[in-house]
Amino acid sequence: MRHDRDPPRVDFGPILARAELLGREFARTAAHHDATGDFPFDNFDALFAAGLLVACPR
Length: 58
Known about the structure:
This protein is mostly helical. It is built from two helices and no strands.
């Protein structure tokens, strides 16, 4: 039984699926960033576009 004071339920499945997909994409470029020291700006842009950096200002 839910009460009015219960926190809303969140389905994290879609969020986790997006994060998993992005993680696989980031893994493909990780060696480049490690070897060159380049900051992965594109990865952060992708996280922001996917709605996974909502608390971080652009």
